[in-house]
Design brief:
The N and C termini lie far apart (65 Å). The longest helix has 21 residues. The protein has 259 residues and is of the alpha+beta class. The chain is built from ten helices and seven strands. Strands 2-4-3-1-5-6-7 form a seven-stranded mixed beta sheet, sandwiched between helices. It is 53% helix and 15% strand.
Length: 259
């Protein structure tokens, strides 16, 4: 007699749930990017391979099996940025849950900047917004962004409104690029940032905004953008951008992320 009942263990349910969570996180990482189409192509090939195996088509199944056997390295290369973001997400969540760790007690690195520095940043952004002076300011969190700091001109100075405005002054040799603030210091200016490859971004967004989104996708940094065309202030974090903020709104957002 054929047993028509499927025996499902509790561990099987946990297994299915964990796989679903992993696929959901991968989907969030690649959603709206060119990598999403690549991911869907790989997924379709994988489904075809499962069907071929179930039908016992030995030759085609062997070819697809070999393809997947050597494809792991290729997938890591193709999805290099997404793998980095996934690992960064895991690490960031782990560190954010360590509320009583020694790192949080003795390190100021987990704060965007001091209270006085936040006021200086907001004051500079407010005046640059009024004057339509373009600006791109990256505030480091856990990661000090050393690899991006090294692409620019090292400054390593105290944060002040006048310093920030002078850097982004149109005739300044340092205005083109990003300023990186880490450990409550202006570390470098004219830094080169990665540009987001998201396809659904507003076409009106310029290179500064795309660079802000790009660095927030690949790191845990918090980014401020002042548009040269409109004077609008925007912020980017975790791959998302919030546009058209006032100076007061900016300070509230910075204060929230500062805590």
């Amino acid at each position: 007699m054929i047993d028509l009942f499927i025996h499902v263990r509790f561990l099987d349910l946990i297994d299915i749930f964990l796989v679903a969570v992993i696929f959901y996180e991968i989907y969030k990482l690649v959603k709206g990017t060119v990598a999403f189409n690549i991911f869907m192509g790989i997924f379709i090939i994988f489904v075809v391979w499962l069907v071929v195996r179930s039908l016992k088509m030995e030759l085609l199944g062997s070819i697809l099996g070999q393809l997947f056997g050597v494809g792991v390295i290729a997938i890591i290369i193709v999805f290099q940025q997404e793998v980095r973001r996934f690992l960064l997400m895991l690490g960031s969540r782990y560190r954010s849950n360590r509320k009583f760790s020694l790192e949080h007690l003795f390190s100021s690195q987990f704060k965007l900047a001091s209270e006085a520095s936040l006021h200086a940043i907001v004051e500079a952004c407010g005046q640059m917004s009024e004057n339509h002076t373009g600006a791109l300011i990256v505030l480091a969190r856990e990661s000090e962004l050393t690899e991006y700091v090294e692409t620019g001109e090292i400054i390593d100075a105290s944060i002040s409104s006048e310093l920030i405005k002078s850097i982004f002054f149109k005739n300044s040799p340092l205005h083109d690029g990003a300023v990186i603030i880490s450990l409550n210091r202006v570390k470098a200016a004219r830094c080169i940032l990665p540009v987001s490859q998201k396809l659904e971004l507003n076409p009106a967004l310029g290179l500064r905004h795309r660079a802000a989104i790009g660095i927030s996708e690949q790191t845990d940094a918090f980014v401020i953008v002042v548009s040269e065309e409109t004077g609008h202030i925007s912020t980017a974090s975790n791959g998302d951008i919030t546009e058209d903020l006032s100076a007061d709104d900016l300070f509230k957002v910075l204060e929230t992320n500062h805590k």
